[in-house]
């Protein structure tokens, strides 16, 4: 059995926090792990901005609910499911990802949790592990699964380092060019073919 482990934002869906930036007019929310590779530092940055502007969890949930999947992502995921198990390994949070998980057909999502006060203020966040994506793949492999991984950013390289094969999809040129040993694709068809070509079951 083989598992395909996907990053979510930028890979299958738009960036939730970029929609928050659009809704609020606060440009700082456009920063992602493409700009700040340390996810802890990025979240500290985001929560500081939210506090300054008195923004609540509901503002982020609203942004997530307004997003559609990236073009072609739904059909792509449905095709991949025909040959592989699908898992989303994301640095998003369960409290805000539900609308996008519904559009993806509710695959298994392994991500983080937010600490939320009664008034809806996001006061903290709980990261499962500093390298949660890597640890998840190592866990699957320890049970005998082969794993492929696909993502678009620096924090996905930890998956590629331990997966049987890892691929960039939709990655900015500055990221993909810094890791020339990792195959990079700009469309789902080529990525799907790469999974099949590297599978031991679908030759």
How does this model look, in words?
41% of the residues lie in helices and 21% in strands. By secondary structure, it is of the alpha/beta class. The chain has a domain at 2-12 and 70-112 and 126-198: Rossmann fold (3-Layer(aba) Sandwich), CATH 3.40.50.1000. Strand 2 (85-93), helix 5 (94-103) and strand 3 form a beta-alpha-beta unit. Helix 3 packs parallel to helix 5. It is globular and about 50 Å long. The two termini are 14 Å apart.
Short description:
This protein is of the alpha/beta class and 203 residues long. It has a domain at 2-12 and 70-112 and 126-198: HAD superfamily/HAD-like (Rossmann fold, 3-Layer(aba) Sandwich), CATH 3.40.50.
Quaternary organisation = single chain
**Total strands:** 7
Sheet of most strands = 7 strands, mixed
What is the helix/strand order?
A: EHHHHEHEEHEHEHEH
Helix content: 40-55%
CATH superfamily of one domain: HAD superfamily/HAD-like
From the coordinates shown, what is the CATH architecture of one domain?
Answer: 3-Layer(aba) Sandwich
Radius of gyration, taken over Cα atoms and rounded to an integer in Å: 17 Å
Determine the structural class based on helices, strands and strand pairing.
alpha/beta
Output the strand order for the largest sheet: 4-3-2-1-5-6-7
User: Cα distance, first to last residue?
Assistant: 14 Å
Global morphology: globular
Strand portion: 15-25%
The overall pLDDT average reads 94
Classify the fold: give the CATH topology of one domain.
Rossmann fold
Low-confidence parts, pLDDT < 50 over ≥5 residues? Answer: none
Tally the helices. 9
CATH top level of one domain? Alpha Beta
